[in-house]
Amino acid sequence: MYPNKSNFGLETKIWTLSITEILNKTININGLVNNPGEFKMSNGMVIEDAILAAGGFIEYADQDSLILNRENFDPSVGKLSDRFILPIDLKYLNGLSNQPSSSFLLLDNDIIYVRKKSGVEAKKSIVVRGEIFFPSNVILEYEISSLKDLINKVGGLKPTANLAASYIKRAGKIISLNLSEELNSNSNFLIGGDTIEIASNNGTVSTIGAVENENLFIWIEGKKSKFYIANSGGIIKSEASDAFIIFPNGKTKKINFFRNPKVLPNSQIVVNRKLKKLDQDNGEKGWDRLFKLITIVTSTLTAAVLASKL
Known about the structure:
With 310 residues, this protein is an alpha+beta fold. It folds into three domains: 5-114, Outer membrane lipoprotein wza domain like (Outer membrane lipoprotein wza fold like); 125-200, Outer membrane lipoprotein wza domain like (Outer membrane lipoprotein wza fold like); 204-273, Roll (Outer membrane lipoprotein wza fold like). 22% of the residues lie in helices and 29% in strands. It is built from seven helices and 15 strands. It has a five-stranded mixed β-sheet, covered by helices on one side. Strands 7-6-10-8-9 form a five-stranded mixed β-sheet. A hairpin with a 5-residue loop joins strand 6 (125-130) and strand 7 (136-139). Residues 1-6 have low confidence and may be disordered.
């Protein structure tokens, strides 16, 4: 049974519209605005109204134009939406004009994206500390900066600095570079967020692994790896395997009969231990003992059975 429309009056129109039209229309605005999200759409709403609803721009926002995507389904070609790049009327946005310059009105489900201004980047900085005169957080003036430029900005290296033993940390990991070789190069490998640790000549050297006496030494300029191994009592020949040195800048070099690399402060010398193998002779002796035990037990039982029959 259908309702009698003549009994509804004004309510009849609202009831009818709720069936044929969407009453709760919304738009979505994202990107560089203070309060991105979904907002109720009103009649005659323009893109500047949407920006105001989202709390306005944040730093580095492109205030000249924005992107709008509008639903336009065409299954035959797989089309989902149309994309528009629309200019922003700053006079209307700032209340200096009563009418927007554009007649482009928003529709239900429009998606607006406020982009970052082209060529604009957030401030980037690099931490430089250690054996320099003014350890500090350096704000980059240019997107590309050289190591030499940064060292100059923090007052230069102290006489106690050891650039070869220095290193760069990026996202908690050490980048394997020899900074003494990079100081005068034109390569640009630094990025915002890096930390440069300038090492000191007043460092130490440790020896661990298959040496007679694992030790910690004060670094002596010019000394090589085998000097520190010898002063740790030498290697344990029955246990020693490969040996190598780990430099503070992340690089690693082998130590062997032909190679005896120079040591940098805060290096670690490692002598690996051989993997222990099962002693085949001991295994065979174990089987011999077990066989003899079984023989003795068998002989004892045999003797006991014979004795019971006497």
